[in-house]
Amino acid sequence: MRVLVLHSHPVEESYGKALYKQTLESLREAGHAVDACDLYAENFDPVLSRHDRLAYHDYPGNTALVKPYVERLKQAEALVLVTPIWNFGFPAILKGYFDRVWLPGVSFELVDGKVESRLRHIRKLAAVLTYGATPFRAFVAGNPPKKIVKRVLRAQINPLRPVTLLAHYDMNNCTPESRARFLAKVKTAMERF
C-alpha cells in the first residue's frame, strides 16, 4: 500500500522527529511504499494567498501552485499524520497544507450544493499526536485535533473505516520511560497498519 506520511515539526532533534522516523521505518518494514512528506524540510508554503482564494473553486487551475502535493495525495492509498498539537490545534504549516492542497476537485467536489469526497481511494487513516496538555485538559477544551482526525478527515476519506489515533499527552511532564513506551506503541501500530 502507498502511504503518504505528513510530518509537521520544525526541530530536527526532537521527539516529534523521532516519532516520524519510527513511523516511516515501521511502515517500510511492514512492506508499504512510503511517501515521506516533511512539510518543514520541503519548505512548504502554508499561506493561502489572495490569488489562491480567488482561484479556489477553479479546478484544475486551483492546483497550479501545489501540483506536486496534489499528485502525492491522489496517489496515496493511506494517510498518516505525525504532528505535535499546539494550542489545541495543528501547527500552521499542517493547517495550511489542508487549506492549500485539499481543494475542490482534489479532496471534494460540490455537486448540487452538497460535498462529495474525492478521497475514497485512501483506505486507511492514522494520526500520531503529541500534546503538552493532559488528557483531561484536552477533553475540557473539546480536543479539536482528535475530532478533526476522527470526524472530519475520516468523513472525507471513508466514514465507515476505523481510524488509528495514537496520542502522547502531557509532554510537559513526560519521562524517558513514557516517551519510550509511546515510541514502542507507534512502532507496533505502524507495523500492523
Automatic annotation (TrEMBL):
<keyword id="KW-0560">Oxidoreductase</keyword>
<feature type="domain" description="Flavodoxin-like fold">
    <location>
        <begin position="1"/>
        <end position="137"/>
    </location>
</feature>
<dbReference type="Pfam" id="PF02525">
    <property type="entry name" value="Flavodoxin_2"/>
</dbReference>
<dbReference type="InterPro" id="IPR003680">
    <property type="entry name" value="Flavodoxin_fold"/>
</dbReference>
<dbReference type="InterPro" id="IPR051545">
    <property type="entry name" value="NAD(P)H_dehydrogenase_qn"/>
</dbReference>
<dbReference type="GO" id="GO:0005829">
    <property type="term" value="C:cytosol"/>
</dbReference>
<protein>
    <submittedName>
        <fullName>Putative NADPH-quinone reductase</fullName>
    </submittedName>
</protein>
<comment type="similarity">
    <text>Belongs to the NAD(P)H dehydrogenase (quinone) family.</text>
</comment>
<dbReference type="GO" id="GO:0003955">
    <property type="term" value="F:NAD(P)H dehydrogenase (quinone) activity"/>
</dbReference>
<dbReference type="InterPro" id="IPR029039">
    <property type="entry name" value="Flavoprotein-like_sf"/>
</dbReference>
